[in-house]
Amino acid sequence: MPAKLSVNLNAIAMLRNRRDLPWPSVTGLGRIALAAGAHGLTVHPRPDQRHIRFTDLPEIRALIDDEFPQAEFNIEGYPTGDFLALVEAAEPEQVTLVPDDPEQPTSDHGWDFVANRDMLKAIVTRLKRTGARLSLFCDPDASEEQIEAARTTGADRVELYTGPYGACYDDPAKAAEQIALLGKTADAAHALGLGVNAGHDLTVDNLPALVKRVPDLAEVSIGHGLTADALIHGMDGAVRRFRSALEAPR
């Protein structure tokens, strides 16, 4: 079964926030994405609300519940008290915990699972009471020791940080090296019973090689590349193109 596609709405929200106007509509484009075949929607509400606003969360929750009940809502973020309260109110199907500093422009590294094991275990235990699936952001070259520590937190999945792979768009040799690292980490996670997601700078062009090396990939969360694609092909067309890339022969 091809990996599921979750459309990250942050870039759309960032564009909306350039003006004190309600367009482009985060929920409107989310609706188009889901109608085109996306399996879910992802947001990363940061403390300064520079893209997704806290008020967006109940609207996205209602969109999925009322119109696309088979779809999933995935909320990413660093587990501050405020973030945990947002998650518990929104009741997403999946929560992805990332080790971001609030000032970071975007996620750019995975957790040190060994150093943060106890903290993550407590957060995972708390959030599982909501019924959510828990995923932890993971470096592409995480060691077996790190993956074992991730497993002991009680999380269901890890999400491979694919930024370094995406940065190799013009260097096939380096891209192949990154694919090998991602594949090794995915293999280690699968061997321990963890599901594997992936996200960051994934495109129509680089997805086929990833899904070929990681055939049991569960889900990809894509925002920047898909939104850029939508400027050319429309949101409907972009979702269909990314789904086709995920279905490439393995």
What's the overall average pLDDT, rounded?
Answer: 96
Q: In percent terms, what proportion of residues is strand?
A: 15-25%
Radius of gyration: 17 Å
Numbering strands along the chain, what is their spatial order in the largest sheet?
1-2-3-4-5-6-7-8
Tell me the series of helices and strands, N- to C-terminal. Answer: EHHEHEHEHEHEHHEHEH
Could you describe the largest sheet, including whether it forms a barrel? 8 strands, parallel, barrel
At the fourth level of CATH, the homologous superfamily is Aldolase class I
CATH class category label: Alpha Beta
Please tell me the CATH architecture by its name: Alpha-Beta Barrel
CA-CA gap between termini: 11 Å
Question: Total number of β-strand segments?
Answer: 8
Percent helix among the residues?
A: 40-55%
Structural class by helix and strand composition: alpha/beta
By CATH, the topology is TIM Barrel
Q: How many individual domains?
A: 1
Provide a descriptive summary of the structure in words.
- The protein has a single domain, classed as TIM Barrel.
- Helix content is 46%, strand content 16%.
- The longest helix has 23 residues.
- The chain is built from 10 helices and 8 strands.
- α3 links the parallel β2 and β3.
- It has 250 residues and is an alpha/beta fold.
- The protein has an 8-stranded parallel beta barrel, surrounded by 6 helices.
